Amino acid sequence: MHVPDGFIDAPVSAAAGVVAAGAVAVSLKGARRELDERTAPLAGLVAAFIFAVQMLNFPVAAGTSGHLLGGALAAILVGPYTGVLCVSVVLLMQGILFADGGLTALGVNITDMAVVTTVVAYAVFRGLVKILPRTRRSISVASFAAALLSVPAAALAFTLIYAVGGTTDVAIGKVATAMVGVHILIGIGEAAITALTVGAVIAVRPDLVYGARGLTTPLKLRVGGELVDAPAPQPQPAAARSPRKIWITGLVTSLVLAGFVSFYASANPDGLEKVAQDHGIDKKTEEHATSDSPLADYGVKDVGDARLSGGLAGVIGVGVTVVAGSGVFWAVRRRRTEDTGPAAVPQRETV
């Protein structure tokens, strides 16, 4: 759903840029409360994983494909404020290095793909976990529903932006119907990826899932015919709590997805591209400012073999994104520590 240059006029693009900048500023402040010594490095990994999975377009209808947006996944794994930053880092890397998503439309893309998806997904997720049984399976169910609803919400948000600042005269009602319809299908794929990923992390390290904090019922033991609270588990050694193993696993998975599996992704246009072609939204599309980038269109310039070119571009993208994301979150984490002092940083609850 990357909006290119030329879809939205300059005033609305500028206004969306202001909204996006404000959202990022608020998220930088909010992320200080979400990040701790274990989740800060994982946030950079989440950004890299989203970048990798976004390269895997999957078919959803005749001649149409979709890809992960990632707002729901990021919000549930590392928190809503940090989630906005994760997706924003991905969009920035894609726009600058890979000519994917217009630079003048960066504010539109951050507002739509980072802010709307994250806010909607996390609101739905939190609402569901309050009414579902307090189990790990409920987290996966809530993740599925949250991700499913976040995608058509983003499609509707784009339609509203286009209704205000679109550069072509089209029937907005038809665009809205087409956008929401195809993105409901894409949302099913998003929901499956999100639920499977969240479920996989919960299975091995539930303490690293932000959305699963404090959701389990305290263990009870029956003593003398009465139920009493079980003794609190002993703290694990620092080495056992380290996220290093899952970080390495996640990074290797991201590299494999972007460097190898992406070659088999669907070549069909994604939902926005298809709707734009069918309804004439793309009539005034402008050439990307970095179209001559060595990595434009997810290929390495002057590398003739398509498989090798795309694979190298994917690996480079994952590497750059994890470094950029980790740098941002390290800085945010360091600022929190400086503001509060190490002793004031609260410990995460385990599930």
From TrEMBL:
<dbReference type="Pfam" id="PF01891">
    <property type="entry name" value="CbiM"/>
</dbReference>
<keyword id="KW-1003">Cell membrane</keyword>
<protein>
    <submittedName>
        <fullName>PDGLE domain-containing protein</fullName>
    </submittedName>
</protein>
<dbReference type="Pfam" id="PF13190">
    <property type="entry name" value="PDGLE"/>
</dbReference>
<feature type="transmembrane region" description="Helical">
    <location>
        <begin position="311"/>
        <end position="332"/>
    </location>
</feature>
<feature type="transmembrane region" description="Helical">
    <location>
        <begin position="7"/>
        <end position="28"/>
    </location>
</feature>
<keyword id="KW-1133">Transmembrane helix</keyword>
<keyword id="KW-0812">Transmembrane</keyword>
<keyword id="KW-0472">Membrane</keyword>
<feature type="transmembrane region" description="Helical">
    <location>
        <begin position="72"/>
        <end position="98"/>
    </location>
</feature>
<feature type="transmembrane region" description="Helical">
    <location>
        <begin position="141"/>
        <end position="164"/>
    </location>
</feature>
<keyword id="KW-0813">Transport</keyword>
<feature type="transmembrane region" description="Helical">
    <location>
        <begin position="40"/>
        <end position="60"/>
    </location>
</feature>
<feature type="transmembrane region" description="Helical">
    <location>
        <begin position="110"/>
        <end position="129"/>
    </location>
</feature>
<dbReference type="GO" id="GO:0005886">
    <property type="term" value="C:plasma membrane"/>
</dbReference>
<dbReference type="InterPro" id="IPR002751">
    <property type="entry name" value="CbiM/NikMN"/>
</dbReference>
<dbReference type="InterPro" id="IPR025937">
    <property type="entry name" value="PDGLE_dom"/>
</dbReference>
<feature type="transmembrane region" description="Helical">
    <location>
        <begin position="246"/>
        <end position="265"/>
    </location>
</feature>
<dbReference type="GO" id="GO:0000041">
    <property type="term" value="P:transition metal ion transport"/>
</dbReference>
<feature type="transmembrane region" description="Helical">
    <location>
        <begin position="184"/>
        <end position="204"/>
    </location>
</feature>
<feature type="domain" description="PDGLE">
    <location>
        <begin position="244"/>
        <end position="334"/>
    </location>
</feature>
